[in-house]
Amino acid sequence: MNANILVIGATGTTGKELVRLLAKNGHKTRVTVRPTSDKRELQALGVELVQADLNDVGSLVKAMDGITKAYFATPLVPNMVELSSSIVCAAKKAGVKHLVKLSGGGAEIELDRLAKWHRAVEREMEQSGIAYTFLRANSFMQNFSNFNARTIRDHGAFYAPHGDGKSAHIDARDIAKVGYRVLTEEGHQNEAYYLSGPEALSGAEIANILSSATGKVVKYVNVPIEAARASMQGAGMPAEIVEGLLEHYQVVKSGHTARVSSAVEEITGQKATYFEAFAQAEREAFVG
Question: pLDDT tens across 183-201, in order?
Answer without folding.
Answer: 999 999 999 999 999 999 9
